[in-house]
Amino acid sequence: xxxxxxxxxxxxxxxxxxxxxxxxxxxxxxxxxxxxxxxxxxxxxxxxxxxxxxxxxxxxxxxxxxxxxxxxxxxxxxxxxxxxxxxxxxxxxxxxxxxxxxxxxxxxxxxxxxxxxxxxxxxxxxxxxxxxxxxxxxxxxxxxxxxxxxxxxxxxxxxxxxxxxxxxxxxxxxxxxxxxxxxxxxxxxxxxxxxxxxxxxxxxxxxxxxxxxxxxxxxxxxxxxxxxxxxxxxxxxxxxxxxxxxxxxxxxxxxxxxxxxxxxxxxxxxxxxxxxxxxxxxxxxxxxxxxxxxxxxxxxxxxxxxxxxxxxxxxxxxxxxxxxxxxxxxxxxxxxxxxx
Length: 340
Hints:
Elements: H1 3-25, E1 33-38, H2 45-57, E2 66-71, H3 78-86, E3 94-98, E4 121-125, E5 131-136, E6 152-155, H4 162-174, E7 178-181, H5 187-196, E8 201-206, H6 207-213, H7 215-220, E9 223-229, H8 250-260, E10 268-271, H9 277-291, H10 294-302, E11 311-312, H11 313-324, H12 328-337
Parallel strand pairs: 1-2, 1-3, 6-7
Antiparallel strand pairs: 3-10, 4-10, 4-11, 5-8, 5-9
Helix pairs in contact: 8-12
């Protein structure tokens, strides 16, 4: 090869190397759409959390992708979870927000749950959720003890929603006297059922949803908060007992802990299995950065959206693995009390 040919060859190598470096340095999400799927219909708590997250996400993702929020309701998030598991693209362009119960739905044989939660790419949870049992101010039930002696007609969503599942579980395990009217579209519709007098209460309603959507009911005393469906008392509710405190023996308390541990992952963010490692790293970093961002925090406060004890992906993965290692007999009993 003569000197001129050698020079051209070297230049070509240099150009190829430069192009390869440019491609390697191009942001993963540049020019892409990033879809945020939402487990519940518009107007409820999950929709509020997901849209808050979607509003700020692009600022924390290199490449500034176009963020698209899309509701995919059905079976308390199971429809969405099945889609994410089997049909959503595995290229990093799809993430989802739904209830922590999606981490245990298949474990407890929930109807229609066709996935292994351990295979999802977990991103984080925005809130450690505290579910509460509430009664309308005119209902005969005024405190937790009354739940064992007086029937309370409660509005519920789908049969796989916590408003139905948890009420059934408490009836079977502890002997509460909930009469459940299921089939409402979500928390916004069950709230309407209270206003219309179609029901006397809601057996399980996320406290953060009340703060976001019906804070005046708390201020004005329109509802009584009877019970906390969580492992620990919420700072706002120091005098309201938790469901664990109602357990009468170690076996009942173990079952209650297994059923309600999912509340620690109350607003869970996740992506399909086999999501590229780079995309997972970017999404987890975006989640961590957003929680510290003043603009995001201010927006959450304006929208009355609670950010209480969020969880990072590693902690969620540990908890999910722990729950899946639970004694099968205990898991079977938990599935039974949940009505699965």
